[in-house]
């Protein structure tokens, strides 16, 4: 049976850096509070007119270039996002045309911060089943577009960015296991209450805006990721010591540290980008992966545990032999 192997990675960030000091001028917060509670020092914010699709396109182009794969060779594009350019067509369709991959399957996956992990899981299944040979998987967001910059509880946490991988069918492993989960019963802890069918204003007449019960999200995330990494190890037939790198969702350094502790991993085996990127939702894991590959930390043959947790709740993971 074919494995889905990551041939290359790519990423893209907006140019504009917004530091914690910048946010001190907008809301009653401090660099010290943000750093000590979250590990975030700065985030990137998309320029006016710069979209999720623009970032996804740049990340995808870099991954395709480094993979030596032409866009016309792709069988499928799966793009995780909660902040698509348009309601339709899917952002995957927009970048398909910009890349020149016209004709292949292209669709978005909305699983909030787990979007990239869901997209990777879906792409892996298509390749394993023999229905696709070359797949572009992207996680891309402009989450700051739905941030209320007057709300200190949420505006300090998020940033914009995109990451991409090119997967190819291979006899060599590859993605070893993927786990995808959701529990819609937790909807109210992290959500955006406006939308096409529900209407574009909520009962308080707010526009598009993230609602979050931070402390509760934190608790469930730690507990859920704890059992998720256990399941991922079991499904891959591996033990904690077999994992070379943890590449976690970059929402909060304290959540990342708790997962590393559960795995018995020291922080020098964990990829951390939350300090520079903040929470880029679907962009976070592929951005961290690309940074790890480009820095030379992650090398061929190593085992990577990727995981994410987000609104829904959704949570998902992959064990990958890079
Ligand atoms: N600056 C300063 N003070 C702030 C603040 C900010 N940006 N945001 C909240 N506070 C205040 C609160 O109002 C509260 O004040 P009070 O004690 O007077 O009521 C105090 O800080 C402590 O708030 P608390 O919620 O207990 O802090 P915390 O240690 O739980 O950290 C989060 C808050 C949001 C950083 C943390 O809960 C978290 O990261 N949760 C997960 C969020 C997340 O990752 N979401 C995305 C998941 S994909």
Summed up, what is this model?
The chain has 322 residues and is α/β, with parallel strands linked by helices. It contains ten helices and 13 strands. Strands 1-7-6-4-5 form a five-stranded mixed sheet, with helices on both faces.
Question: Alpha-carbon distance between the termini?
Answer: 18 Å
Tell me the domain tally: 2
Main CATH class of the largest domain: Alpha Beta
Annotation, overall tally of beta strands: 13
Instruction: Let me know the average pLDDT.
Output: 96
User: Unreliable runs, pLDDT <50, ≥5 residues?
Assistant: none
CATH fold-type name of the largest domain = Peroxisomal Thiolase, Chain A, domain 1
Name given to the CATH architecture of the largest domain? 3-Layer(aba) Sandwich
* Ligand names: coenzyme A
Helix count, DSSP H or I runs of 4 or more residues: 10
Indicate the radius of gyration in whole angstroms: 18 Å
Shape: globular
Major beta-sheet overview? 5 strands, mixed
Q: What order do the helices and strands follow?
A: EEHHEHEHEHEHEEEEHEHHHEE
- The helicity comes to 25-40%
Describe the structure.
The chain has helices at residues 20-24, 31-38, 52-67, 91-99, 115-128, 152-155, 214-236, 253-262, 274-277, 284-294, and strands at 3-12, 17-19, 42-44, 76-80, 105-109, 134-142, 160-170, 175-182, 190-191, 211-212, 245-248, 303-310, 314-321. The chain has 322 residues and is of the alpha/beta class. It has two domains: 3-172, Peroxisomal Thiolase, Chain A, domain 1; 176-321, Peroxisomal Thiolase, Chain A, domain 1. The strands form four sheets. Strands 1-7-6-4-5 form a five-stranded mixed β-sheet, with helices on both faces. Strands 8-13-12-11 form a four-stranded mixed β-sheet, with helices on both faces. A hairpin with a 3-residue loop joins strand 12 (303-310) and strand 13. The protein is globular, with a radius of gyration of 18 Å. The mean pLDDT is 96. Bound molecules: coenzyme A (COA). Residues 29, 33-34, 37-38, 113, 152-153, 156, 212, 214-215, 217-218, 251-252, 279, 309-310 line the site of coenzyme A.
